[in-house]
Amino acid sequence: MRLVGPAGEQVGIVRIDDALRLAQEADLDLVEVAPMAKPPVCKLMDYGKYKYEAAVKLRESRKNQAHTVIKEMKLRPKIDQHDYDTKKGHVVRFLKAGDKVKITIMFRGREQSRPELGLRLLAKLAEDVEDLGFVEATPKQDGRNMIMVLAPHRTKSSQGKVVAAPEEFDESIAAEA
Predict the structure, then answer these.
(1) How high is the pLDDT of residue 160?
(2) φ, ψ dihedrals at 20, nearest 5°
(3) Are residues 57 and 81 in the same domain?
(4) Helix 115-128 vs helix 81-96: crossing angle, to nearest 10
(5) Staple partner for 151: which of 57, 70, 136, 168, CB 3.0–4.6 Å?
(6) In whole angstroms, what is the distance from residue 117 CA to residue 165 CA?
(7) In terms of domains, do 58 and 95 share one?
(8) CA atoms lying within 13 Å on the CB side of residue 145
(9) Are 12 and 3 a contacting pair, CB within 8 Å?
(10) DSSP structure class, residue 163
(11) CA–CA distance, 65 with 100 (Å, rounded to integer)
C-alpha cells in the first residue's frame, strides 16, 4: 500500500505491517483514504480529531445557510378592494420579513373560463409590491388554481450576490383559455 505521513508527505509504498508499526510509534491511526487505487492509499492521522473537525465544519455550513420560508396567500378573482388591500398588507409583511410568498388564485365554477382575471390580479399585486420583491415564478394555471411566487429582494447583508430581475408574465396562459 502507498502511505502518506501525518503532515501530508509521501512516505512511499510500504507493507501493512510496517505501516501499522509506524502508526503505533507515532500514536496515530492508519486510515485507508483511497481503497480503489492501485495500490491502495493509507494515511497516518488522528482519526478522532479528523471526525471532530469535519463535524465542526458541517455545523458551521449549516449555520450560514439561509432558511427559506414560503408563506401562502390565497385570493379569489373577484376579490373586493378592501380584502385585496388586507391580503396585500400580509404579502408586504412577509416580504419585509424576508420570506417568499406563494400567491394562489382559486377559481370556482364559471370563473375557470376567465383566467385573464387571475392574471390581471396577479400582475396588479406584483406591481404593488415590486419595491419589496420580484416575481420568482410566473403565473401558472394548475387545475382550478393559478399560482405565482414572489421572492424578496436581497438585503444589504447579501449584497455581493446578484439580484434576479423580475420575470415577465406568461401571457400564453390567457391565450389557452
Answers:
(1) 42
(2) -65, -40
(3) no
(4) 50
(5) 136
(6) 25
(7) no
(8) 10
(9) yes
(10) P
(11) 16
Strand ranges in 17-93 using DSSP code E only, listed in sequence order: 29-34, 41-45, 70-75
CA-to-CA dists, residue 146 to 106, 125, 142, 143, angstroms: 7, 14, 6, 8
Sign of the torsion formed by the C-alpha atoms of 132, 120, 176 and 114? positive
What are the tens digits of pLDDT across the range 72-129?
A: 999 999 999 999 999 999 999 999 988 999 999 999 988 888 899 999 999 999 999 9
Number of domains comprising the chain: 2
**How far is the CA of 94 from the CAs of 67, 145, 149, in angstroms?**
14, 21, 12
Domain boundary residue, one of 63, 81, 100 = 63
- Listed residues 63, 84, 114: the one ending a domain: 63
Could you tell me which residues come within 8 angstroms of residue 106 by beta carbon, excluding any fewer than 6 positions away? Answer: 74, 75, 76, 144, 145
Three cell numbers written together for 118: 387571475
CB 141 within 8 A of CB 176: yes
Give this prediction's pTM. 0.54
Range(s) of the domain holding residue 151: 70-176
